[in-house]
Specification:
- The complex is a heterodimer of chains A (139) and B (359).
- Chain A is α/β, with parallel strands linked by helices and 139 residues long.
- Chain A has one domain: Rossmann fold.
- Chain A is built from four helices and seven strands; from the N terminus they run βαβββαβαββα.
- In chain A, the strands form two sheets. Chain A has a five-stranded parallel sheet with strand order 2-1-3-5-7. Chain A has a two-stranded antiparallel sheet with strand order 4-6.
- The two termini of chain A are 19 Å apart.
- The relative contact order of chain A is 0.23.
- Chain B has 359 residues and is α+β, with helices and mostly antiparallel strands.
- Chain B is built from twelve helices and eight strands.
- In chain B, strand 7 and strand 8 form a beta hairpin.
- In chain B, helix 3 packs antiparallel against helix 9.
- The two termini of chain B are 41 Å apart.
- The chains are: A alpha/beta (139), B alpha+beta (359).
- Chains A and B meet through strand 1 and helix 1 of A and helix 4 and helix 12 of B.
Chain lengths: 139, 359
């Protein structure tokens, strides 16, 4: 893990997930897993965020919402797709309203598979994203 | 009359873990009307029944929602067991009851935490979620999963809990009960919490009936209905009283859910004391033919499963009516006339589960 020069803020958006991964994302913030030890704070404002955690696949209605949230985030920014649904649609891949994973509309930097993704793997994904964020910042 | 303005709320909002959109019509700081619009998490899950056979579909229906996933799977299995007309072994019934109540404990703790977060009491939020992690550890020990368990099958359950495990769970819940009692002192007697919840979002008994509220939302308005009393799984052998409150406000909803936590501990203790030895499942052969209807009391209220089969491996229809969907009408009702600052708390008091609602 590279040295973290800044305290990254995190934004979570639920694409069309079943809640499983969302709850695990929130669990990462609570005392047992505690991502605040990396200086990570959960924010609700896209303009404050460096990392976008997206759970669930993309559907016709949330497509614009996801695009809008991503465009509001300041550069440099990284996107972590949490859970198999955000990676490629997962168990809902064949549903008529699912267009696919998060990478259908926005560029994804880290994929965290799992159904539901475990807090340990989510934290691992976020830490990988921090490295990418550092590199993007240098450019 | 003040100036009217429309404020959009959601789909992405700090207080909402899930996307739901409300158009709030405000007159100064008062909400005159709330117009919900849903569909941000719609996946078209019921239509998927055409592409999956009835056994595989169990794994899809468990993923309607990650919080009550166990109960979704169980409701679907019980509906199909009705079509097959099979009686599952007693041990499986008790195991289902225990897992159901564990789901209720983790869901209510989750809700209490989110409520605390919504009124800005972060330490309380962390305490609730710290305790919830213990329930998840128990789930992991008994089923192998933290969120999605997949331990149901048509005709019984797939995994067993041995005596030592059940005894250790009861011990753990006893310890948890003491800790939650301390938390309750904050939730139910602290004046800062009371000032946010008392007399906020009143849903009278008449309104609760007229708008079709379900679950703790309805019981907090003094209506005594609990689907567990219909006696699915092993609930017919368990002694419990329906918890209600006549206060009809947000505080009453919090109180009902806290009392239900203690009730769940009691039900688990009773089930562990009564659980018989025996098989975990019986074999179910062939394809289903016919239709069945099943009601399950989820943490958020009554869920209804309707399954129609045609004798082939693909079902004609698997319909789920989830509690949050019916609780949206009472939500719109209690939002009328409330303060703008109370909107997040009122949305939370129905315990919204948007992915259930939209499927």
């Amino acid at each position: 893990m590279a040295k973290i020069s800044k305290s990254p803020w995190l934004l979570h958006y639920d694409g069309s997930s079943c809640n499983g991964c969302d709850i695990e994302v929130l669990a990462c913030l609570t005392p047992v897993y505690d991502v605040e030890r990396f200086g990570i704070i959960n924010t609700g404002d896209p303009k404050h965020a460096d990392i976008l955690l997206i759970t669930g696949g993309i559907n016709t209605q949330n497509k614009q919402v996801v695009e809008q949230i991503y465009s509001q985030m300041p550069n440099p920014k990284v996107v972590v797709a949490v859970g198999i649904c955000a990676c490629n649609g997962g168990v809902f891949k064949d549903c008529y309203n699912i267009l696919g994973g998060a990478d259908k509309v926005i560029p994804v930097d880290v994929y965290v598979p799992g159904c539901a993704a475990r807090p340990e793997s989510i934290i691992d994904g976020v830490v990988k994203a921090l490295d990418i964020l550092e590199k993007k910042r240098e450019v | 009359m003040g100036k009217r303005s429309v404020v959009p709320f959601g789909p992405q909002h700090p207080v909402l873990p899930e996307p739901i959109h409300l158009d709030l019509v405000l007159e100064d700081e008062k909400v005159i009307e709330a117009i919900p619009s849903i569909g941000y998490i719609h996946r078209g899950l019921e239509k998927l029944i055409e592409k999956r056979d009835f056994n595989d579909y169990l794994y899809v229906i468990e993923r309607i929602c990650g919080i009550c996933s166990y109960m979704h799977g169980m409701g679907y299995c019980e509906a199909l067991e009705r079509i097959f007309d099979v009686e599952i072994p007693d041990r499986a019934k008790y195991l289902r009851t225990i897992w159901c109540e564990m789901s209720r404990v983790h869901s209510h703790l989750l809700w209490l935490g989110l409520l605390a977060d919504a009124f800005g009491f972060e330490a309380l939020f962390y305490q609730c979620w710290r305790m919830r992690e213990k329930v998840l550890d128990m789930f992991e020990a008994s089923t192998g999963g933290r969120v999605i368990f997949s331990v149901n099958k048509i005709g019984g359950v797939l995994k067993d809990m041995d005596k030592d495990m059940l005894a250790s769970f009861v011990k753990e819940f006893d310890a948890m009960e003491d800790e939650i009692k301390k938390l309750c002192d904050v939730f139910l007697t602290d004046y800062t919490v009371e000032s946010r919840l008392r007399k906020v979002g009143i849903l009278t008994k008449e309104d609760a009936v007229a708008t079709g509220a379900v679950g703790p939302m309805m019981r907090a308005s003094g209506i005594e209905i609990d689907t567990r009393k219909t006696g699915y799984a092993a609930y017919s052998n368990i002694d419990f009283k329906i918890i209600t409150s006549n206060d009809c406000d947000s505080y009453a909803r919090c109180e009902v859910r806290i009392k239900e936590l203690f009730q769940s501990f009691d039900i688990i203790r009773q089930a562990v004391a009564q659980i018989p030895d025996g098989d975990l499942s019986i074999a179910v052969k062939g394809n289903p033919n016919g239709e069945a209807f099943m009601r399950v009391e989820q943490p958020r209220g009554e869920a209804i499963y309707y399954v129609k089969a045609n004798g082939t491996k693909n079902l004609d229809r698997a319909r789920v009516r989830t509690p949050t969907f019916t609780n949206l009408t009472p939500l719109v009702k209690i939002l009328q006339g409330c303060d703008y600052a109370d909107v997040p708390i009122l949305i939370l008091t129905i315990d919204p589960c948007v992915s259930c609602t939209e499927r």
